[in-house]
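User: Can you recover a sequence for this backbone? Please restate the input before giving your answer.

Assistant: Of course. Working from this structure:
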C-alpha cells in the first residue's frame, strides 16, 4: 500500500499515455528529491487518500468522460479530494479539458465542471495551420504561478490537440500559446491546474513543471 502522504495518484481510466506520464513524474520526483511515489491506479480509495492527483488524457472528450464514469466511485472520490479537501490536482491534455463544464466534440458532453469554460474545436485564423495542432510552441505567461517557476517566457512545450479550452474568466488562465490566435496552454484555479501540452513530452520545460507540481502548496 502506498504511503498516502507521499502518493501521487495517476488515474488510469483507459485514456492517456500513462507510462510516459508515470516515468516523467518519477523522474521529476527524483530530480527534486521530493520522495513521492507515483501510483498508477483506477481505485477511488487510492485517489481519495493521495497527496496529489494527476489526470492524463488522450482522445475524444466524450470517450474520456465515459472512461472516468466507468470507474465506480471515481468521480465522487475526485470531487471530494479536490473540491472539499483541497488536494493539488493536475490535468494533462484532455485531462485538463475535462475540467470544463462542457465539451463540444461530437455534440455536448458535460465535463467535471471544476473550471467554468467549454472545450471547442481549434479555429486558427491562419487557414494554413493544420488541425490537429502538433509540435513545439512557445509559452507566454498571463500571471505568476508556482507551476511555472524557473520556466522562462517563450520556453517551448509539446502540443498535440484538435480542441481547446475556452474559459469564462481570464483570471483562470496561467499561460497561453499562439496557434493562429491565443490558445490556453495552462489553466488553474486554487488547487486545480491543467496543461494543454504534454509535460511528459516537453523535456526540460515539462520536467520543471512536474517538479513544481510536486512541491506546490496551493
Amino acid at each position: 500500500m502506498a504511503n498516502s502522504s507521499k502518493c501521487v495518484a495517476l488515474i488510469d481510466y483507459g485514456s492517456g499515455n500513462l507510462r510516459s506520464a508515470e516515468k516523467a513524474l518519477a523522474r521529476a520526483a527524483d530530480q527534486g528529491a521530493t520522495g513521492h511515489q507515483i501510483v498508477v491506479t483506477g481505485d477511488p480509495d487510492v485517489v481519495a487518500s493521495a497527496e496529489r492527483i494527476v489526470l492524463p488524457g488522450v482522445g475524444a472528450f466524450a470517450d474520456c468522460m465515459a472512461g472516468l464514469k466507468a470507474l465506480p466511485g471515481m468521480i465522487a472520490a475526485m470531487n471530494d479530494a479536490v473540491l472539499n479537501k483541497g488536494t493539488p490536482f493536475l490535468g494533462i491534455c484532455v485531462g485538463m479539458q475535462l475540467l470544463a463544464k462542457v465539451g463540444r466534440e461530437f455534440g455536448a458532453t458535460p465535463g467535471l465542471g471544476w473550471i467554468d469554460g467549454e472545450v471547442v474545436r481549434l479555429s486558427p485564423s491562419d487557414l494554413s495551420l493544420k488541425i490537429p495542432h502538433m509540435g513545439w510552441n512557445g509559452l507566454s505567461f498571463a500571471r505568476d504561478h508556482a507551476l511555472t517557476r524557473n520556466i522562462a517566457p517563450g520556453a517551448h512545450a509539446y502540443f498535440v490537440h484538435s480542441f481547446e479550452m475556452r474559459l469564462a474568466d481570464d483570471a483562470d488562465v496561467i499561460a497561453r500559446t499562439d496557434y493562429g490566435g491565443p490558445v490556453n496552454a495552462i489553466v488553474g484555479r486554487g488547487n486545480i491546474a491543467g496543461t494543454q501540452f504534454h509535460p511528459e513530452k516537453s523535456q526540460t520545460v515539462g520536467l520543471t513543471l512536474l517538479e513544481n507540481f510536486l512541491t506546490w502548496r496551493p
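That completes the design. The chain has six helices and 14 strands.
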